[in-house]
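Problem 12. The chain below contains 531 residues. Write out its predicted structure in token notation.
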Amino acid sequence: MNAGVRPSRFGLQEHGIRNIDTAYWNLGTAQLLEHAVRRHEGLLASGGSFVVRTGQFTGRSPRDKFVVRDESTESSVQWGPVNQPISEAHFNTLFAKMLAFWQGNDLYVQDCFAGADPRYRLPIRVITQLAWHALFARQLFIRPEPAATQEHVPEFTLFFAPGFQADPQEDGTHSETCIVINFRRGIVLICGTSYAGEMKKSVFTILNYLLPARDVLPMHCSANMSHAGSAALFFGLSGTGKTTLSADPHRRLIGDDEHGWSDHGIFNFEGGCYAKCIRLSRQNEPQIFNAIRFGTVLENVAVHPETRLLDFDSAEVTENTRAAYPLHFIDNAVTPSVGGHPEHVVFLTADAFGVLPPISALTPEQAMYHFLSGYTAKVAGTERGLGKEPEATFSACFGAPFLPRPAATYASLLGEKLRRHQVRVWLVNTGWTGGPYGVGERMPLAYTRAMLDGALSGELADIPAEPHPVFRTLVPKACPGVPSQFLNPRGMWPEPDAYDRAARDLSWRFKKNFEKFAGVRPSILEAAPVA
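Solution.
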């Protein structure tokens, strides 16, 4: 039985799904909320957002992510801990068991797109067990016009069934949880977890595989533009400030997390935002705060069971609380979410050692070095298995967990585009100052915003700068709206000698990590920090 918007002619039988109870096709936001409430999948909060709990998984489970190894991926995928191979035989067994799982049950279908530029748009389909997962997909991906859904033919289909569990001995997985991508067949299987971010990042991984062959650089970054149209990109892993800093009241948001850079300019992969909302406040992040409204999905946010008031300061479940909402919930969002070639690229890092300067300019060679390095600190809760302390890490291209191809593929594309369009590149530390994590303080958001304003407006280009003694990036001596002492990380430490030791230690970590890129151009190797 089918219900909802008229289903696509490319129906469930094309996927091998048969003997289900009811398939709910492309229900709207209000309908999906009604279903989710009736099925007790979460709580409707004051203001209309929907609060869910994701169970034991409050972040991604990277150890359980696999790529099917076949003739199409054998030589093109960078196999290893990020892209773990699984055989076609194991995939076929797992898929058959998942198809059997749907029988006799309801399911929800959302037909969507990934990619705001029609020239590179990927038609996708999301088939879910839970109504709120369908709502998440509806808010995060790009929606087709309702009248066009009947003609929708997906190139990739995501099957999301948290109630179905893999058998590691039969299915070749590590646990009952798995996320399996089959590039040749255009299928993603997600089971044993309720964390909706697995859908989002699976689609991102797919685009990271497909687009380089079309000379498009897929990027783990946010993007915005001035009202005059000057675009900027913000690279960085979770917790570094991509979403917060790109949602600038004085600029227009193109997107908060995933973009492509083609010969025509930049474009958002998504139609929504997936913002961290721990300690969210109207004062510090007004645009994101105002996006928490009817239809927004809140993952693991504390809510009073009777008053239904939200408590964004609470981390009783996880630090990785999330809000999923459509892009148009942000004031001044760009529609459609495309822009010209960026004039500025910003690398964001949350330096747990308190060593890196809060802002500095990079040469083209330094830009390539820091892009390949992808230094930041993972914050507890963004991935399964992290403790309470942040963990310093290097993630190539600021997105290694989502790169099926070798990092050099993406770095080469970035370098070519930076040179062709003469882009200015900045390194911004949104992490700690005055000491390492536990001793120093987090860089005040107001100061980071002021520094970015100075960089993107061109003001910092006219201010004298001097190279950092260890990292050799150019650090401005002043910035409007920022006390000058904050620009000198060494001066913020109570013991300068302790800073020097920490800086040398971090320099060594950079060099040790970069040994795996020994084959890059000598000029990039020479851009390394000095010991």
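Discussion. Residues 470 and 530 are 5 Å apart (CA to CA). Students who got a different answer should revisit the alignment rule from Section 12.3.
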